[in-house]
Write a structure and sequence with these properties.
The chain has helices at about 40-45, 285-290, 315-320; strands at about 50, 55-60, 60-65, 65-70, 90-110, 110-115, 120-125, 140, 145-165, 170-175, 175-180, 195-200, 220-225, 240-245, 250-255, 310-315, 325-335, 340-345, 355, 365-370, 375, 380-390, 390-400, 405, 410. With about 425 residues, the chain is mainly beta. The radius of gyration is 26 Å and the shape is globular.
Length: about 425
């Protein structure tokens, strides 16, 4: 599949005829020619092009002799997100990021390959803002390029191969990324999405999440029913703060897709939502199916919905919140708003960072932050010294009113004002 750009040349012949009686007109001075801006020059030359090799971090995908396809384990077990419990085969190939010469916001990504009936190949793209934060992943579909929320020079791309359980699935032999900039209105600044949804315990220790993480006992992550907010393995680009009615909270990364659907980004406005645009913002499709018989009471795969879960909690998150049964929780989708200071919890697998009610290592345990999660930070205060992945420090960072984490376990925290 290639790109053909047709150009037309316009030749203009100018003929001047003079006679002895002709008096040439005096040329009036005009403004000097204006040099085109880099963006205008790039637009005139057509889309910027990037052809990434089919190589990178894989989850449930194998690449052999330049062709990508869904993989199986040695015992023949098919791969797929653990939270989906066998509803679909899905694999990801992260192709990395590319820096374009000028900012872009429209991405087309034609794919060369074979897609059997019932299977699909999706190209997800995202852009990195000036603050280093990533936008959500946006699908680039044939005839419908992905539109990023704002122009950026740095764009990441990943392939998603999807197939029904028991089928061979699609193959991909090549990908071309075509990027340009088109005028858009000013970006609407929305408050951070925060909704009350039903949470279930994922469990499935020993399984593999959609981003390739092997689930271990007491794990700290969640699953959401859309790839748009799926963090790369080991990272917390997309993190949530989950709070119980008792006020205990856990901030953890999104590492899996499920529990019922894969295209239900219900935290987004209906116009932006990938599927089920007739549902109100904040209402998961599974909840509508369970409570109101929406879609005949079935999920996107035709399964009868047995609970209205909009989020799955890994065991460590579930127990760490003090839950003993599935329950409604309040979820803050932290990537949906910008402007706050962020840091990343780093413990090297030593368990979560404990939020304390005071800036003291012996303070009351009031919540947790999972390894790799991005956490919001408000201010800093001097407290008891703590040794962590970032060394030894007596600084504590406030995450919310009367909740603190040791700076010694938080990477990348910007300078913060003193807490009042």
């Amino acid at each position: 599949m290639g790109l053909v750009v047709a150009t037309a040349a316009l030749a203009v012949a100018l003929t001047a005829t003079t006679t002895a009686a002709t008096i040439p007109a005096r040329a009036e001075p005009g403004p000097p020619p204006t040099a085109p801006t880099p963006a205008a020059a790039a637009a005139a030359e057509g889309p910027q092009r990037w052809v990434p090799p089919l190589a990178g971090t894989t989850t449930g995908v194998k690449v052999v002799e330049g062709t990508a396809r869904l993989s199986t384990t040695r015992d023949g077990t098919e791969t797929g997100p653990a939270a989906l419990r066998g509803a679909q085969r899905q694999g990801l190939l992260d192709l990395g990021a590319h820096r374009f010469a000028t900012p872009v916001n429209r991405i087309d990504a034609p794919v060369t390959g074979d897609v059997p009936p019932g299977s699909a190949v999706a190209v997800d793209v995202r852009g990195q803002g000036a603050d280093g934060q990533w936008s959500e992943w946006v699908p680039a579909e044939p005839g419908a390029p992905a539109m990023l929320p704002e122009p950026t020079r740095t764009v990441a791309v990943r392939l998603a191969l999807v197939a029904p359980t028991g089928s061979a699935g699609p193959t991909v032999r090549g990908l071309e990324v075509l990027a340009d900039a088109v005028p858009t209105g000013p970006r609407t600044v929305e408050p951070r999405a925060s909704y009350r949804v039903f949470a279930t315990r994922e469990g499935l220790v020993g399984g593999t999440t959609a981003n390739g993480h092997r689930i271990v006992p007491h794990d700290q992550f969640v699953a959401l029913p859309s790839r748009r907010a799926l963090s790369p393995r080991g990272r917390g680009d997309y993190s949530v703060r989950v709070c119980t009615d008792a006020g205990r909270c856990a901030t953890v990364p999104v590492w899996d897709v499920g529990p019922w659907n894969t295209t239900d980004d219900y935290w987004n406005p209906p116009a932006q939502r990938q599927s089920w645009k007739d549902l109100p913002q904040g209402r998961p499709q599974a909840q509508a199916a369970f409570e109101d018989e929406y879609n005949g009471g079935r999920d996107g795969f035709g399964r009868q919905v047995k609970n209205g879960a909009g989020i799955d909690l890994a065991d460590g998150t579930f127990w760490g919140l003090g839950l003993r049964d599935n329950a409604f929780v309040t979820v803050d989708y932290l990537w949906t708003a910008r402007g706050g200071a962020l840091g990343r919890a780093v413990t090297g697998g030593a368990g979560p960072v404990i939020e304390r009610a005071t800036p003291d290592a012996a303070g009351v345990d009031s919540g947790l932050v999972g390894d790799g999660a991005q956490v919001e930070l408000q201010c800093q205060v001097v407290g008891t010294p703590v040794t962590g992945s970032q060394g030894t420090s007596n600084l504590w960072l406030r995450t919310r009113p009367d909740r603190y984490v040791p700076a010694a376990s938080i990477q990348g925290a910007p300078p913060l004002p003193p807490c009042a």
